[in-house]
Structure formats: C-alpha cells, structure tokens
Amino acid sequence: MSRRIGAVTALLSTTIAAEATTTLTWFTPDGAEERLRLTEAWPARFEDGLPVRQLRARKGQRHLSGLWWSATMGRHLGFESWLERDHAMLLDFDSAVVGIASQPFWLSWRDSGGGSVSHCPDYFVRRADGSAVVVDCRPVDRRPDKDIAKFDATAAVCGELGWGYDLVGATEPVLTANVRWLAGYRHPRHDQADIASRLQEVFAEPVPLVNGASVVGDPIGVLPTLFRLLWCGELVCDLTVPLHAGTVVRMGLAGDAGGGAAAGRLGAVRRRRAPGPRAGRHECSAALERGPGSGGARYASVCLAWLRGDRRGRAGADRAVRAARRAARGTSSRRHVSGNDTSSRSRPASRTAPSRALLRGTGSTPRARRSGSGTRPRRQTPRA
Question: Would you say 98 and 127 are in contact if contact means Cβ atoms under 8 Å apart?
C-alpha cells in the first residue's frame, strides 16, 4: 500500500513539474507570437492560427512538400509528404471537422536530463462538438525511438489538456482514391443549385449513380454537381469499394460519417495517362461553357466512358486531353476558312517558308554552297 501511494505521489509531482515547464508557442491570426502555459492553452483557437514552420523545398529532398486547398477552411494547408496530404484530404472530407491548422504550434519541454526538447505536430483539428485532436503523420516503419519519445510526450500533454491525439500511418488505398476523386469537385463552383435540388429528389431512394444522373439530364453536365454533393455529404455511397456506374447512391443521414464516397477506380486515373481529376476536368468544364466546338465535349465523353468502364475511352484519352488544352488556349490543329468552306490542314512552316539563301538574295541552297557551285551540286558517283 505504501509503495502504491509513493508511486502515485511521484507521478503527481512529475506531472506538476511537466505542466510548469511545458509551453506552447503559436502565431495568432494577426501574426503575433504567443507563448502559453498548459493552463492557458485550452481556450486558444489554434485552428485559426498561422503555421509556426515554413515548409521549404530543397534539391535532393526525399519528401514532397506542397499546399492543399481546404474546402473546410477556405485556404491552403501545408504538407510535407504525400501521407500528410492524404490525411489533410481526409480531414477536409470529414463533415465532423470544422477547423484544421497545419503546423499549429511548437510544444516545448525539458527532458529527464534537463535538455530542451520541442515538437511541432502536423495538424490541429477542431470538431463540431468543440473537442480538439492533434494529429501526427508518420509511417510505421519510419518511427525511430527519439521520435516515438516525442510522440508519447505529445500524447501526454494532449491528455492533460483534454485533447485527443492520433499518430496515424498509411491510409486505406480504396478510401483514399475515392476521396481524392471527389476532392476534384470540392470547390463551390461545382455547386449548381437547380441541378442539386433535382438530384436530391432523384436520390431520395437508393438509385444507381449513372441512372440517377441520366434522369436529371446529360450526365456530362450533371456528374460534377453529383460528385460535389457526395463530397459535402448530402449524398452518400459506399466508400470501401471503387465507384462504378452501378454504385448505389442515396441521401445522406445525420449519422453518416464523412462526406460521401465515389471512384476508387476514377481516383486511379490520375496515375495513368487517362483523364485526371485535376487539370482535364476543369478544362473540360471551361470548354463546355464556350460551346460544343471547343473540344470539351469530346473530353467529357471520355471521362464518362471511364466512369462506365468502357475500355474504348482509354484509346482516345490522350487525344481528348490535348484537344481540351488546345481549346483552353484558343488554338487548334486545323485552319478554318471563312464562310461555308471546309477546313483544310495547315502545313508545317518548314515546308512553306523560303530558305535562308533565298531570303539573302542568293540563288544557291546551303548544300550547293558547300559543294562549291552556284547551281545544283553534282551527284557523287560511287566508286567501283
């Protein structure tokens, strides 16, 4: 009994000492630096703060740094690896998350030897019920002992503050691919109110995805809004299997977790040479707004062929992408004649442009000059 009381007393004294030496340093939304004790950190709005670390890229680095535009926050979140990017995407997709901050604060404390130790978590997450979660992203096979000690200390501090702490590794491949595809439609520009209301009426009962979109109108124009509703959680489907034309979609309920689901197979399109959810789809939308002759309809038809699983769409995917990009730049591979005349192929400039020798006023070609004659060079007869 006495040993147990002594252990509890030692634990309490260690906790009190840790609370006295542990500090959190963060930048307010105005850019002011603040250093807080643990007793002062709980009410701070870390999700609105600025990053305490600048993510820089350098030659030869083994990880990829970048920015993820968060639909939840309406601004960019930094990431230092694809793993962090995937988790930022899943947090942005989670309807229970109302705030996300990347590199939110520096957590500093003293180790057993009296040395200063600091750690900057990857993300600070605020949930709709007011609770908070601190997230660190690290693959299981890349967690050395010194980093595990920092993760354990961070988890202990989060427990003192009443926050949750998640040390996460690799994501589920199909889920990540599904959400990555939907993320291409997370921007509000895909929110068409009239189409969205009709889709909600159609999917009041579970209906296959393409069938429901065809009821509302042309799938090429309806699918972007449908994917947007799946991202927002107003429509849901099974996230654990790849999307296909027969995926059953229904109205979202209050108890549904996350935003929605779609397209593991379509998410994999980005890793191939077929239409991708980043560039081509937006180019296609812009081309459709300019008119049917801009090349966007052809590209959108290829995207729809991929959705339906039509292998014939793969052969023309590259050509459709190039056509959509030429349409976005306002150029074309054909020269159109005014009036009702048909268009003709434009010849390469190298075949129609005069030679340099003619532009200089000489009557000889470069080959003729090299042969030492002002006219055509003599044919070289082969030796016997």
Answer: yes
Q: What is the largest CA-CA distance in the chain?
A: 115
Pairing of strands 207-208, 248-251: antiparallel
Strands (E), 240-319: 248-251
Which residue, among 155, 88, 90, has the nearest Cα to 123 in the 3D structure?
Answer: 88
CA distance readout (Å), 207 to 190, 199, 217, 355: 22, 11, 15, 66
Ramachandran sector of residue 271 (left: φ over 0; alpha: ψ -120 to 50; beta: rest): alpha
Query: pLDDT tens digits, residue range 50-100?
Result: 999 988 878 888 888 999 999 999 999 999 999 999 999 999 999 999 999
Under 8 Å between Cβ of 52 and 35: no
- The Cα–Cα gap between 316 and 246 comes to 24
Report d(CA 120, CA 154) in Å as an integer: 9
Domains and CATH numbers, the chain: 17-168 (3.40.1350.10), 173-268 (no CATH), 272-332 (no CATH)
* Number of Cβ within a 10 Å radius of residue 147: 14
Give dist(CA 97, CA 76) in Å, integer.
16
Kindly give, in sequence order, each residue whose CB lies less than 8 Å from that of residue 5, ignoring residues fewer than 6 positions away: none
Q: What is the pTM of this model?
A: 0.64
Tell which residue, 66, 136, 128, has the closest CA to residue 105: 136
Say if strands 116-119 and 106-110 run parallel, antiparallel, or are unpaired: antiparallel
Q: Measured between alpha carbons, how far is 269 from 263 in angstroms, rounded to an integer?
A: 10
- Asked if 325 contacts 283 with a C-beta cutoff of 8 angstroms, the reply is yes
For β-strands 97-102 and 123-127, DSSP reports them as antiparallel
Backbone angles phi, psi at 242, to 5 degrees: -65, 150
Residue 334: in which H helix or E strand, if any? strand 334-335
Q: Residue 2: exposed, middle, or buried by beta-carbon count in 10 A (0-12, 13-18, 19+)?
A: exposed
pLDDT tens, position by position, 247-291: 999 998 765 655 533 333 222 222 222 333 333 334 444 433 433
User: What is the DSSP-derived secondary structure letter of residue 268?
Assistant: G
pLDDT at residue number 254: 64
Which one, of 162, 178, 302, lies nearest residue 238 by Cα? 178
